[in-house]
Specification:
Elements lengths: L7 H11 L5 H30 L16 H19 L10 H11 L6 H16 L7 H18 L4 H20 L2 H13 L4 H22 L18 H23 L2 H4 L3 H18 L8 H9 L4 H20 L7 H22 L7 H17 L2 H12 L5 H18 L5 H9 L8 H6 L12 E5 L1 E3 H9 L4 E5 L8 E4 H8 L2 H6 L2 E3 L7 E8 L4 H11 L3 E9 L2 E9 H11 L1
Parallel strand pairs: 1-3, 6-7
Antiparallel strand pairs: 2-5, 3-4, 4-6, 7-8
């Protein structure tokens, strides 16, 4: 692994600065590194897809399943699920978690630390699911791979955990930005869907990461969006009823997709191998007749935006592709869902636009407008991310005139999914809630997670054994410590903390000193606090949880200076955390 060219004193100072919520320059530097790394990972992922297509798809295009013979394209999904199953079968259940939902879970429960095994699995499953002809996208794997790579920077440098959270957001934004060439949508997606909060300290590094991710992608694939969109605008207010109807249907389909992805108990109870076989067989059967449902589908999306497409193909993309994607998720194949959702939403809009043009040719003149709005509405409704969907619409079309109908379509679709289908949390939160996880943090814990322990801990302390003589006591106080950390003879007992002022008081009491030739610090009048350990990299939310779980009122902060060598760097009390929250709030 590469060695970072930072001297230890500089690195220690860098870590200490990052512990604060106001470490803007340091976080921006990390955002640049995360953006470059994530952009590179995204380019490599796309190159792997193209490399895989070399072996069996003419033109080396991982989207060109229509060029394959029906038996071959029907066989591919079965082969893909077989290879995925052989790879994942012997691994523990926790290693099967991948994609954006996994990123949100690690952010909520593990401060953004990403397991290496899951990261490796994501490469394998992400590539195989797309080039193997399943209905799968590349954005979910890209976000997982980019977020984990960005988090690795902080883990490698042993940075405070509050900065790891920002790095995960940076990787998410850069992954979306590099995939679609939509940096602004990447920023809002990271804050709205993954971080679920908006802060200035979070925005600036995430913006830089999205910018760098896009620049890396541009250097290889050019500055054009993932698919070309013709110039579109709302020609007449008579289009508004059709747009509302499109958004209503898209909202219903989005709600159905979220529910289907949760899996019916009768299906989820089946053995994993049987579920994979059913997924492969159903995908292959549909692909025999409609190969457009395979892969991401951006080639079909571009076709429906720039020219006519048969109604039966549009119907297959609108319903069957969405259903096959949901079936993959319900069956335990962690495929990317964003790309297929966009294609299905666009197909719904294009289908209604074509039908509307047949019935009311004087009103509906541009089915492509309905397709673009359906795409944004599906993303907003399924993910419950209206801002990210609107900004993706703006950046993909590069047309501000489309925002007004886009806002109407997004609002109607989101309300439909929430009120009529009961999908109030969106796809990713709904999936995690089904697993018994609750990633939405309380406001106080969310605020405390932005700050690390070094920003609040008291560093002015001295370690001492429990029993000392008078000279040792005076020597301890010469350094003017605030706290004394009393180590126990029994190593199984935790240390105690005492204010140095209590010891100073008895050293000025000649009568007390005359009665005590040696000073037992546990007998000195004053309050002593039981201590529990917390790591120097922990956030204040982790420290607060440790206080509650251990039932103590203070923590000693451990710092690993070398392998197997630990030292106490500071003391942090419950009162200090609560005072910090009240002051900063």
């Amino acid at each position: 692994m590469p060695r970072f060219a930072l001297r230890r004193p500089s690195l220690e100072r860098f870590r200490r600065q990052l512990a604060s919520v106001d470490a803007m320059p340091q976080l921006c530097l990390l955002g640049i590194l995360a953006g470059v790394l994530t952009g590179t990972v995204m380019v490599v992922f796309r190159l792997l897809l193209e490399f895989g297509a070399l072996f069996f798809i003419p033109g080396d295009d991982p989207e060109a399943f229509e060029t394959l013979s029906p038996p071959l394209r029907a066989l591919l999904p079965l082969l893909a699920v077989a290879l995925i199953g052989v790879w994942l079968w012997p691994q523990p259940r926790r290693a099967l978690k991948m994609g954006i939902g996994h990123v949100i879970e690690r952010l909520a429960y593990h401060q953004g630390k990403m397991p290496l095994r899951n990261w490796i699995n994501q490469w394998w499953v992400g590539v195989l699911s797309v080039i193997g002809g399943l209905s799968a996208g590349r954005e979910g794997p890209a976000i997982h791979l980019g977020s984990a790579a960005s988090s690795w920077i902080g883990t490698r440098l042993r940075l405070p955990h509050n900065s790891l959270r920002v790095l995960v957001a940076c990787g998410t934004a850069a992954g979306i930005s590099a995939s679609f060439n939509t940096p602004l949508a990447g920023v809002i997606f990271a804050m709205e869907v993954v971080m679920m909060e908006y802060t200035i300290a979070g925005f600036l590094p995430v913006i830089l990461a999205a910018t760098m991710g896009a620049l890396v992608s541009w250097s290889v694939y050019g500055a054009e969006p993932a698919f070309s969109v013709p110039p579109l605008e709302l020609d007449s207010l008579l289009d508004l009823p059709g747009i509302v109807l499109t958004a209503l249907i898209v909202g219903l389909l989005a709600g159905g997709f979220v529910r289907l992805s949760r899996g019916h108990p009768a299906f989820t109870r089946l053995p994993f191998a049987l579920r994979l076989a059913l997924i492969g067989a159903l995908t292959g059967a549909v692909a025999w007749w409609y190969p457009e449902v395979q892969g991401i589908g951006y080639d079909s999306l571009e076709q429906m935006l720039n020219g006519p497409m048969a109604l039966d193909i549009l119907l297959a993309l609108a319903v069957l592709k969405l259903a096959l994607t949901g079936l993959c998720v319900a069956g335990g194949v962690p495929v990317g869902i964003i790309g297929p959702m966009l294609v299905s939403g666009a197909a719904v809009g294009a289908l209604l636009g074509v039908i509307g043009g047949m019935l009311l040719p004087s009103v509906v003149a541009t089915p492509a407008l309905y397709a673009v709005l359906g795409m944004a509405a599906m993303m907003a409704a399924a993910l419950q991310a209206p801002l990210a969907a609107l900004l993706a619409l703006l950046e993909l079309t590069r047309n501000a005139a489309i925002m007004l109908p886009g806002m109407l379509a997004v609002v109607v679709a989101v309300l439909t999914a929430r009120q009529l289908c009961g999908c109030r949390q969106g796809f990713f939160l709904s999936t995690l809630t089904q697993q018994g996880l609750h990633p939405l943090q309380q406001p106080m814990m969310q605020a405390l997670s932005r700050v690390a322990v070094p920003a609040v801990m008291e560093r002015n302390l001295a370690r001492t054994p429990r029993v000392i003589d008078h000279d040792r006591a005076k020597a301890l106080l010469d350094a003017k410590p605030t706290w004394l950390v009393i180590t126990q003879e029994d190593r199984n007992k935790p240390p105690l903390a005492m204010k140095a002022a209590h010891l100073a008081r008895v050293l000025h009491d000649e009568a007390w000193l005359a009665e005590h030739e040696r000073i037992d610090l546990e007998e000195v009048p004053g309050q002593r606090l039981d201590l529990a350990p917390v790591h120097l990299e922990a956030t204040l939310s982790e420290a607060y949880d440790t206080l509650v779980e251990s039932g103590v009122d203070a923590l000693y902060v451990e710092h690993t200076t070398a392998p197997m060598i630990r030292r106490i760097s500071g003391i942090i009390t419950r009162e200090a955390i609560e005072n910090y929250y009240r002051r900063k709030r």
